[in-house]
């Protein structure tokens, strides 16, 4: 499989998938997964690759039946025969609509049935934006993260902005469970932000028609004595 640009992750954001949108670097998402189809396209040059290339970097869940996980089917209005529904164009491993003698089935399993071969991670069901403030340098960065990620995974994202991210203690202002005040608390790297007491309030803002960037939570990183090697 062609190596992905950037580190492999457990979850990807739609924006990260959208960055891989060429025939030589083709990612798609569907049914909750993220798939690198670059090698599939290289091995199947021709018109059947065109719909996948056109959809590179996009979510194609609407192509598939969520129950069978096969491409959707319909009754052809001309022939009254059930066949795969491909308004985007017939794509790799979808059989011809009519019987033909030259249809090669030597590929074995259709690629969507052998999806684990191409899957590189999961698509985040919801993302959120956080600010990471380096207390040592007073620098602040804003990053989009999957809500499902644990803080240790968010730290891996922050490593792209700060090579010494592993040498910092992470804290945030969270509500004191014993009162109505807020306190700075060290965050547990093995928990999500929500589990650490840093809720995602974006849905509340959306419900009240308030801009979602009105308040973005801040994660404070405090430098430890032992710097890791960059």
Tell me the layout of helices and strands:
Layout: E1 11-12, H1 14-18, E2 21-22, E3 25-30, E4 33-36, H2 38-43, H3 50-54, E5 73-75, E6 82-84, E7 119-123, E8 127-134, E9 139-146, H4 151-158, E10 168-175, E11 182-186, H5 202-207, E12 218-223
Parallel strand pairs: 1-7, 8-12
Antiparallel strand pairs: 2-3, 3-4, 4-7, 5-6, 8-9, 10-11, 10-12
Describe the overall structure:
The protein has 230 residues and is α+β, with helices and mostly antiparallel strands. 13% of the residues lie in helices and 26% in strands. The protein has helices at 14-18, 38-43, 50-54, 151-158, 202-207; strands at 11-12, 21-22, 25-30, 33-36, 73-75, 82-84, 119-123, 127-134, 139-146, 168-175, 182-186, 218-223. A hairpin with a 6-residue loop joins β5 and β6 (82-84). The chain is elongated and about 70 Å long. It starts with 10 loop residues before the first strand and ends in a 7-residue tail after the last strand. The relative contact order is 0.14.
Keywords for this structure?
single chain, 230 residues, alpha+beta, Flavocytochrome B2, Chain A, domain 1, Ubiquitin-like (UB roll), 2 domains, 5-stranded mixed sheet, 12 strands, 13% helix, cytoplasm, Cytochrome b5 domain-containing protein 1, heme
């Amino acid at each position: 499989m062609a190596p992905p640009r950037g580190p492999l992750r457990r979850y990807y954001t739609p924006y990260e998938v959208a960055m891989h949108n060429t025939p030589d670097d083709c990612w798609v998402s569907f049914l909750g997964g993220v798939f690198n189809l670059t090698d599939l396209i290289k091995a199947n040059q021709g018109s059947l690759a065109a719909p996948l290339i056109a959809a590179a970097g996009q979510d194609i869940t609407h192509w598939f039946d969520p129950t069978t996980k096969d491409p959707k089917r319909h009754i052809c209005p001309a022939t009254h025969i059930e066949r795969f529904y491909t308004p985007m164009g017939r794509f790799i491993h979808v059989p011809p609509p009519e019987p033909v003698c030259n249809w090669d089935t030597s590929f074995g399993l259709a690629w969507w049935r052998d999806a684990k071969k191409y899957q590189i991670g999961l698509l985040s069901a919801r993302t959120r934006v956080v600010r990471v403030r380096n207390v040592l340098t007073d620098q602040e960065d804003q990053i989009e993260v999957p809500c499902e990620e644990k803080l240790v995974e968010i730290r891996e994202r922050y490593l792209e902005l700060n090579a010494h991210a592993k040498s910092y203690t992470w804290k945030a202002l969270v509500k004191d469970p014993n009162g109505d005040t807020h306190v700075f608390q060290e965050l547990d790297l093995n928990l999500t932000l929500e589990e650490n007491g840093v809720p995602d309030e974006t849905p509340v803002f959306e419900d009240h028609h308030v801009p979602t960037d009105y308040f973005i939570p801040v994660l404070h990183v405090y430098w430890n004595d032992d710097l890791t090697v960059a």
